Amino acid sequence: MGSFWTYHQFSIAVFAACLVLIALSNWRLLRRVEGGAPPAQWPRVSVLVPARNEEINIGDCVRSLLTQNCPDLEVIVLDDQSCDRTGEILAELASQDRRLRVLAGQALPDGWLGKHWACQQLAESATGDLLFFTDADTRHEPQSLRHGVVALMTEQADLLTACPRLEVVTWAEKLVIPFFPWGVLSFLPLALAYRVRASALCAANGQYMLFRRAAYDQIGGYAAVRADAVDDIALARQIKAHGLSWRMALATQDVRCRMYRNSAQVFEGFTKNLFAGFGYRVLPFLLIWLWICIVFLQPPIVLALIAAGLLHSTYSVVMAAVGVFLAVLLWGISNARFGFPLYLALLYPVTTVLTLFIAARSVAFAVRGRSTWKGRTMVQARIRWW
Fold first, then answer.
1. How far is CA 149 from CA 56, 208, 241, 297, 300, in A?
2. For the chain, what are the domain ranges?
């Protein structure tokens, strides 16, 4: 038992150290969306925004998009059968700027998720060489889209996706939202992901998806992922499956977003996405979460037991302290890169526990067919063991 415990603790420390190395490598590769030489001829860019009951956000979002300093730009917003003032706000904005077109969303067909159907209609109406999908809760600096177009062309990518600055205000936001960019920075080695076609090695952010129109059409657009709850990752996987190129960048200086405004929205939003991100595969989901718990919860628990006099081992103290140090370092790297408060790194065990609860809730809701978003029930998930 002693040798197993020693090996087990050492394995945790080694694994955490590997994650730190991945995060440092990704820090270098996750470049800011800025710089580069502008193209000789600017492409036409279609900015596409689905909006359902977004009266709080839509005005500021659209106004920020209309300030973009791209030479050839159209902004299309689809009012997805909103029952608040979204439509009125959009009509007023459209009367003030001819570059804005407002579409009335058609009835949702069977087998489609709401946002996916809205984005499909937007793409069909777009006239641009590039398609830029973004969410109604984003705010864009005037140079945002210009930087994105230059980066797409400089990288010779078919899809450029970027991480905005995620604003966190309530404690639920502060403790849960940083987990997800942390997961990408720590577990997805971009140096490898860019070079291999394995679909599991990719990530994307639906708040910032810039496609070449030809690539979007080649993969079948949103119709190809119409029932996939995590549409951004599903589209990135389609890009890889078709042998096309994708890149991930950092847009924290160009775009900001407050995803959720209270704990209920935080839990509902991530409950919808978390299990779906694993393709509703039970065993991989359980095994990965079990290992996350071991790596990031066991060391602080061991230190707590030693402090309470319930465990006596000098080696355990050392290895548990190393594990906690590496975890705090890893979280600190992520929070610094994505603009979250650094002190939140010290609260990583709380974040892990809360996200574990959301993970369990995500499985339960998917199995029972209870996942909802913005008043619509999600398409029934196909649960698989592997």
1. 28, 12, 23, 42, 45
2. 2-26+278-377, 31-169+188-259
CA–CA distances in Å: residue 217 to residues 111, 128, 180, 232, 241? 20, 12, 29, 15, 14
| pLDDT tier for residue 273 given thresholds of 50, 70 and 90 | confident
pTM of this prediction exceeds 0.85: yes
Beta bridge partners of 245: none
CA 159 to CA 193: how far, in whole Å?
A: 14
Eight-state DSSP code of residue 202: -
Angle at 373 between CA 252 and CA 48, to 5 degrees: 50
47-to-71, 158, 191, 195, 221 alpha-carbon distances in Å: 13, 16, 29, 29, 15
What tokens appear for 154 in the block? 């400089």
Q: Which residue has the tokens 């949103």?
A: 222
CA 220 to chain CA centroid, Å, is 21
Radius of gyration of the chain (CA): 22
- The domain 31-169+188-259 having CATH identifier 3.40.50.720: the answer here is no
Give residue-wise pLDDT tens across range 140-181. Answer: 999 999 999 999 999 999 999 999 999 999 999 999 999 999
Percent of the chain at pLDDT above 90?
A: 76
Q: Are strands 209-212 and 130-133 parallel, antiparallel or unpaired?
A: antiparallel
Residues 340 and 241: their CA atoms lie apart, in Å, by 33
Q: How far apart are CA 26 and CA 124, in angstroms?
A: 35
Helix axis angle for 314-338 and 282-307, nearest 10°, is 120
Residue in this structure with the two tokens 């959720």, named with its chain if needed: 260
Is 80 exceeded by the pLDDT of residue 209?
yes
